[in-house]
Structure formats: C-alpha cells, structure tokens
Amino acid sequence: MTHQITKELIRDLHQSRPQTIEDLNQLKRDLAKRYGTGIISHTTLLGTYRQFLADEKQEANEDLLGLLKRRAIRTLSGVAPITVLTKPYPCPGRCVYCPTERNMPKSYIASEPAAQRALQNKFDPYDQVRNRIDQLEMNGHVADKIELIVLGGTWSFYEKDYQEWFIKRCFEAANEVNSETLGEAQTINETAEHRIIGVTLETRPDYITEEELWRMRLLGCTHVQIGVQSLDQAILDLIKRDDTVEGMAKATKLLKEFGFKFTYHIMPGLPGATPEKDFETFHMLFSDERFQPDMLKIYPTVVVQSSVMYQWWKAGKYKPYNEETLRSLLIKIKKIIPPYVRINRLIRDIPGNDIIDGNLVTNLRQELQREGVSCQCIRCREAKGQKVKLEDAELVDRTYASSGGTEHFISFESPDRKTIYAFVRLYLPGNSKQAFVRELHTYGEMIPVGSEKKAVQHTGFGKRLMAETEKVAEANGFKKLAVIAGIGVKEYYRKLGYRDENTYVVKTLEK
Ligand SMILES: [Zn+2]
C-alpha cells in the first residue's frame, strides 16, 4: 500500500480546523478512509502541506501547522519495538511448564498483549507490522527506527519457506511497497522512512548450528533469544527440556562467534528447583565464561492450565515459590548482575486470570526499585533522555573471558557509573583474526534520522565508540572488524568507512 497523497486530500486537510492532537488524529483517520490511503505520518503530511502552500501561494492554516509541527514522541531508547507472532505451529519441545493453547503458537497465551494483536491480525506478518506502525503514529510516536521482535514457538522448527515469507512481509509492511525477493525488500528498507534496525528471533539452543545462524543472518537477524531456563542438569531433565548444559554452552559459543547479541530466558522456581539452586544458575551465568548472556528475561515459573505441569500441581507434586521466597531470591540475583548485562524482563506479562498458581505481582521491578534494591544492570542505568556534555562522560572498558575469546564492553558513563550513555559490545574470538561488534547502543532522546539536533543520540557517542573499538581490536592483533548491522543501520556504517561483506559490514584494520 503506497500513500497516494492527492491535492484534494491536502486541500481537505488545509480547510479543516483541528484544535488538538486528538482532532488531528481523527482527521487523519477520516482522510485515510475518504481517499483510501493508509494513515499518513505527521512528517509526511507536514512536508506535503508546505509544498502545497508554496505551490498554491496560500496562507498557512496556523492551527493545523502547529499541530503537525509538534514534535512526535519517542520511546526513551529511541527505537520502537514491534512484536509480531508466528502462526500456531507444533514445537519439537515437550517442556512441562509450557502453555499449549489451541490457536496459539506453543508457549504463548492468547490473552498476552502481543498475542492479542497477532490474533486480531490472524497472524499475518504484514498486517501485524502495518497496524502497529499506524497505531504508534496515531498516538504521536515516531516509528522511523524499528526493532522487529518475532515471537512464537521455536523459530527454527517452522518451514524455511514460511520463515522467508514471514520476514519478507514484515519488511514490505515497513516499506509500504511489495518486492520480488526478500533481498530486494531489505535493500529498499536500508533507506526507507520506517527502517528495521534489528530483527530478533527466538529459538531453542539445540537448533543452533552454523548453518542455522547463516540462515538467520540472511533474514536480517541481529539478536537471538534462547530458552535456557536453568543451568542445573537435574532440573532440565525433570522438566523434559531435552537439552544439556553442555549443549547450551556450545550454542552460546556459536552465537558469539557469529557476532550475534543474545538473550537468555531463565525460569526460577521450576520443578526440582530451590532458591539456592536457582541462585547458583545465575552465579554460573556470569562466572563461567561459557555463558555470559548479554540480556536476560527472567520468568518466574507459574502454573497455567494448558501446561503438563498443571497436573503435577493438582496432584500436589509441584508448588511455585510464594511471593516472599521469590522476592528475596530476585533481590539476591539483582545484586550479582554485572554492569554489562541488561535485564529486559523481570516478570512475564501473563494476565493474572491465567495464572493458576505463582507470582501475581507484575510490577515487581518497580516495587524492588522503590524498596531501594539497587541493580547495576544496563536497564537500571540507561540515560533517560537527558542531554550530556561530553566532558561529563567517561570512557570505560570492561573485559571478561567469553567462550574461548575476550569480550570488551566499552561504554560512556557518568563518573559515578550510575548512568550509561552509550556502549559497544566487542567480541574478540579465540579462533580467528576477525573481531565483531555485536551491539552499538546509544540512549536518550532521539531525533529523526538525518536531523541535526543535539540530543544524547547525536552528541557523537556512537562514532567515538566505534573509533575506540577499532583501536582496541587492532591493539589486540585483529585484522578486521565486522559489525552485525541491522538492515536499517547499514547506511550509518557505510558512512564510517565500512563495506558490505557476507551480510555484515566490515572494515580492514591496519597500521
Ligand atoms: Zn537492573
């Protein structure tokens, strides 16, 4: 669907009298209906309206202009996350805790917010992305940088044709134009208004092979989420995870050697677990170099009716942690989270009605924060839109051993280390001379691509960090630096002297 903005549409707009953003949004909906266009973004309307005024030598409708010019809201991290779900499909797993609802991909519950949106759109990838972008823009948000998060059962278990079609349709929805091939859709997206700057896929560790990771790269994937759940083999066996701690270590090493950033899902309170055993899992995550995840989603185990575990619970063979046990465990865990890890979720967003037994407190993170439980994870330290003078930011380089290589977490932080403005994850593998930038992230108020305004995003942290990263890689004897750049950020790196190579952007490092 392309937006055919006709002169009639703009004339109607010109003659309207919106007084509030709500009026303007209603007007946009009316125009979209009348002219059969999609919802047109504020930015596009503003540009076209100005052109119209110049062409027609008309006086501006000041109310309208004022509303159109009002700066759209950005999410604090600057990136608009869009979550889409794949169609219901069998999963090779037989995990006892997993919800198995009809009409839902395995492990999802129909009442979860993202699942509801997917259901409304009949799991169509194009409609899910398109509707979400429209919704964001109608609420006055900017959606020019999109992190596409694909959830559902085990991604790697879906047919390959479906995978490719699904991702292609997501890019087409962002581009608002159809393409012959996925590659063409990705190329168009590199310079599109709605750029997909990263793609997250979710899979099982035992499906991660070199071949699978190459396929994920071709789809544009930059971030992999894997269900680890526990590093206690006895617990894994009991919950029928059909995987081993050693297997997870192997998958993790491959992810690092491909330069992916990755998230572990961990479930405290599984059958067979004790708070001591769960704490040991978290301790191992960051003391054993075979693991070291970048991000965590902590999902305390709850009983849902559609899981096998429900029968265990009914028979009195299983009981989730009570609130007090869970709370004190999470406090202990938060205290050992290293400063280079981001806790993305502390609780899964399962509506209370669906929880038969287990934690019901969904704002646990905020509660713990209120109680003064401090956590040095990235999420708790992110700069929230504040502008910062470069001289107030210090460059920090933290290193740790990681799956036979070395990781450098290089960041700009406040002198007291309580605020983080930007960071790079640089992986120096033990088995090759090519280093990887797995992630570059700057926080703060974001200004649309190409704008010159000085917010945290544009004080040059990104460029400075990349220059520092190149130096560190070179000083360690690395000949080449590869960045696992999302489709929508390749342009950024090309401007920094990087060239395209095998789905990455690379730079030769030389003295
Ligand atoms: Zn934290």
From TrEMBL:
Belongs to the ELP3 family. Its cofactor is [4Fe-4S] cluster. It comes from Candidatus Kerfeldbacteria bacterium RIFCSPLOWO2_01_FULL_48_11. The keyword Transmembrane does not apply. PROSITE patterns: RADICAL_SAM (PS51918). GO terms for biological process: tRNA wobble base 5-methoxycarbonylmethyl-2-thiouridinylation. It holds the Pfam family Radical_SAM. GO terms for molecular function: 4 iron, 4 sulfur cluster binding; metal ion binding; tRNA binding; tRNA uridine(34) acetyltransferase activity. It is an enzyme of class 2 (transferase). Its EC number is 2.3.1.311. This is tRNA carboxymethyluridine synthase. Binds 1 [4Fe-4S] cluster. The cluster is coordinated with 3 cysteines and an exchangeable S-adenosyl-L-methionine. One of its GO terms (cellular component) is cytoplasm. Pathway: tRNA modification. Keywords: 4Fe-4S, Acyltransferase, Iron, Iron-sulfur, Metal-binding, RNA-binding, S-adenosyl-L-methionine, Transferase, tRNA processing, tRNA-binding.
